[in-house]
Amino acid sequence: MTRLAILLSGRGSNFLAIADSISAGRIPGTEIAVVISNKPYVAGIAAAEKRGLNTHVIQSKGIARAEHDAAMVACLREHKVDLVCLAGYMRLISPVFLEAFPNRILNIHPSLLPAFPGLDAQRQALEYGVQVSGCTVHFVDENLDHGIIVLQRSVPVLPEDDEHSLSERILHEEHIAYSEAIRMVLSGEYEIQERRYVRKLAHHGGAETWRTPSRYSSS
Ligand code: GRF
User: Fold this and answer.
1) 109 is catalytic
2) What is the pTM of this model?
3) What are the DSSP E strand ranges found in 157-200?
4) CA of 160 to the centre of ligand 1 (A)
C-alpha cells in the first residue's frame, strides 16, 4: 500500500475528494496514512476524524519555519508516508521538508499556472480578464506555485462570474484533478523531462511492433 499524507489548513474539500476516490477504488493500492493541519479546529481535521483517519495538528503560528517543518517531517516519517499531498495547506515548504520528500510533494492551485500564483488566484483571474482559468496539480519545489506540472484542468470564465461562482467551478475540477494526478504519479508510467511530466516511452510492443516494413517501407 502506498501511504499518503494530506496537509491542510482549512475546510478540506480536496482531502474529502481524494478520500472518496480512494474508497471508490480510483487510486488503487493507496491509503491515507495521516491528515495534518497547521491550524487547530479546522473542518478538514474534523472530517478526517469522522472518517477514523489518523490526524495531527502541528501548529505553525509563532514558530520558525525550519522548526515547524522539522516537526512535520518527523510526523510524516512516523507514519511512513510515501507521498505528501498539500490540499489547501497555507504554508510555504522549507528546503529541509523538500529534501526529505524529493519529488514526493504535490500541491493543487486554483489557476492555470504559471498564471496567477499566490493568494486569491480566482480573483486575480477575474481582475485580469482571462476567459479561461482552471486548476493545476504540480510538484512542490522551493518557489511558490512553481514546480513541475502534473495535470491541469480548464474552465471557462463567464461574463456573469464573480469570485464565488468562478471558485466553485474551479473547485469542481480540482476535485477531479487531484485524484487523477495522484494516480498518475503513483502509476510509475510518467517521468520528468526537463519541466515536462510525460508518459514514459514504451520499450516493448506498441509503436515499435506496428511500425513494420510492410506499412512503412517504400517497396
Ligand atoms: C483550493 O482552492 C486549493 O486549490 C487551494 O486552497 C483551496 C483549498 O480548498 N490551494 P479545500 O480546503 O481543499 O476545500
Assistant:
1) yes
2) 0.92
3) 190-193, 196-199
4) 23
